[in-house]
Amino acid sequence: MRAVIQRVAHAHVTVAGETVGQIGPGLLVYAAAAPDDADADVAYLAEKIAHLRIFPDAEYKMNLSVADAHGSVLLVSAFTVAADARKGRRPAFDASAPGPVAEPLIAQLGAAVRAYGLPVETGRFAAHMLVDSTNDGPICILLDSRRTF
Known about the structure:
A hairpin with a 2-residue loop joins strand 1 and strand 2 (18-23). This protein has one domain: D-tyrosyl-trna(Tyr) Deacylase, Chain: A. Helix 1 packs across helix 2 (99-114). The chain has helices spanning 39-51, 99-114, and strands at residues 2-15, 18-23, 26-32, 55-56, 62-64, 72-77, 120-122, 130-144. Strands 1, 2, 3, 6, 7 and 8 form a six-stranded mixed beta sheet that branches. Helices cover 19% and strands 38% of the residues. It is built from two helices and eight strands.
């Protein structure tokens, strides 16, 4: 699994004019599953999301997790996070799992993050979503359960 984590002041996602997920301060997480991802990949990302120390402490050092900062998580499925754009001008999406594989893995990721006691909102799988956010920092972190970067 791969994810792009953004520290945000607030974020929301709409589908066909309806708000389906919304948070105040916290993390906006764009996540993609690979065809052969398993429970260990979900667990790795969930633990990282819950415990990344990217929120400022009293001395403005990035020392607090989203839980420490009393934040929330907005999890948005985005198969494009697994895109390979190394060749040519059109990204390849072969590394992204098909919907029937990806949907339960993304749902499992949301449940795993919730299990750390965090409020989690989500987008809508396979829908055309409009995501609006205000990055705080900006802080953007890339995660990969296979640790390729």
